[in-house]
Amino acid sequence: MATSRTRLRRFPEHGSHDPADVAAVLDAAFVCHLGVVRDGWPMVVPTTYARSGDTLFVHGSVASQSLRAGGSGQPVCVTVTLVDGVVIARSVFNHSINYRCAMVYGVPRALDGDEKLEALRCLVERIVPGQWGYARQPSERELAQTTVLALSLEEASVKISEGPPDDGQGPDGELAVWAGVLPLRTSPGTPVADPSLAGGITLPAHLAGWRP
Amino acid sequence: MATSRTRLRRFPEHGSHDPADVAAVLDAAFVCHLGVVRDGWPMVVPTTYARSGDTLFVHGSVASQSLRAGGSGQPVCVTVTLVDGVVIARSVFNHSINYRCAMVYGVPRALDGDEKLEALRCLVERIVPGQWGYARQPSERELAQTTVLALSLEEASVKISEGPPDDGQGPDGELAVWAGVLPLRTSPGTPVADPSLAGGITLPAHLAGWRP
User: Fold this and answer.
1) Is A190 touching B (CB cutoff 8 A)?
2) Residues B33-40, mean pLDDT to the nearest whole number
3) Residue B14 pLDDT
4) How far apart are CA B111 and CA B47, in angstroms?
5) pLDDT score for A205
6) Mean pLDDT of chain A
7) Can you spell out the DSSP letters for B59-78?
8) Is pLDDT above 60 for B163?
9) Tens-digit pLDDT profile for residues B130-143
């Protein structure tokens, strides 16, 4: 969906509420920033998440104290941002960041029982596919210590800013100043084994081929 | 500063309020998540920032409507997170993320005049050193369209989680399951020139050597 801003720019910042666009951004990362209100103050904490259909599962342990303190029905904002590059313009004013950002508003529901277990499976498999069946499964006690929130994607939107700066067509385009994009990418390094790892345990294929 | 949790773990999650620790995390990134309260709901938006001494300058244009709507004295939470790797444990429960996270709470002040100009210089020079003197300076009109917030670092803290998983010493250490860290790193790609760039303008050295 185009915003009013889109029509004014050659390389627009795209805004969309299309579920497919929202899903594409959410599925490209696994760390979100979870915002809650605590005693009238905003609190923003990083945590992991995974999308399953039109639901977002959010690992809520880090914010569970705040969410409980406010009772049920506490609104949250979950924001996921991927930084793709720095946009170098002719003028300081037109510098910007190329990014993909999804924002989800809603009142989450804390999961229990089989729903919680399935959400944890989604979280683990999203971040490291193949790991759920490889690692030891959670015990009842471990499950009880974990908070997983489910949030509807009904009130979600994305913004995507991409491409070169937009000051090339105006008077600044005459300046002898370089303009373009300095791209950024996130890539995996070489896996580091736990120094206390018992001998003879080799890196399994699903971890050797892991990419974020 | 050690938290109670630190003493329980071999490779602890470090918490600190030491200004040097806060500065080290803040100076390692340039995109933050700015949290504000808007009509009782949390709103979390990504934006750029730069530290100068014990002050954080935050590019506030994206949130300026919300900040103005709430009048002056609106509290914010600025959170900066660097994701360093995925911690692979023997048990699902002990999986985690290695990260560095800084959180700053406070009531920001919108800057004007020379203060705003100097803060913008800090923002640009932090993200792309050498760029402030290279690009065209902001006009009065452009300055008026830009919101820059100043936030004291008085109420700031960091948490750093690093190292291997901590289940190697317990009963799970006997499992024939690989454990360790899958590191992540962010690196620059090859600069992409604006297709509308005039001929004969070469990439200057301060952009060619840029790293995030």
Assistant:
1) yes
2) 93
3) 82
4) 16
5) 96
6) 90
7) E-GGGHHHHHHT-SS--EEE
8) yes
9) 999 999 999 999 99
* pTM of the entire predicted model: 0.92
pLDDT tens, residue by residue, A77-117:
999 999 999 999 999 999 999 999 999 999 999 999 999 99
A151 touches chain B (CB under 8 A): no
User: At B32, is the secondary structure helix, strand, or coil?
Assistant: strand
**Cβ–Cβ under 8 Å, residues B100 and B183:** no
**DSSP-H helix ranges across chain A:** 19-26, 64-69, 113-127, 140-144, 205-208
Q: Does the domain formed by B6-186 have CATH 2.30.110.10?
A: yes
CATH superfamily of A6-187+197-207: Electron Transport, Fmn-binding Protein; Chain A (2.30.110.10)
pLDDT tops 50 at residue A1: no
Distance of CA B80 to the CA centre of its chain: 3
| Min Cα–Cα distance to chain A from B161, Å | 12
Determine contact, residues B71/B136, Cβ cutoff 8 Å.
Answer: no
Give the residue from A107, A149, A194 with the most B CB atoms within 10 Å of its CB, the best one to mutate: A194
The answer to whether the Cβ–Cβ distance between B46 and A101 falls below 8 Å is yes
Cα separation, A144 vs A137, whole angstroms: 13
Place of tokens 């065209």: B136
Using the predicted structure, report yes or no on whether residue B61 has a pLDDT greater than 80.
Answer: no
Structure token digits, residue B153: 């670092």
pLDDT band at B72, cuts 50/70/90?
A: low
**Residues 76-95, chain A, touching B (beta carbon < 8 A):** 76-79, 81, 83, 85-86, 88-93, 95
Residues in chain B: 212
| Residue in B31, B124, B182 to test binding to A, most A beta-carbons within 10 Å | B182
Q: Which residue of A has its CA nearest to B164?
A: A194
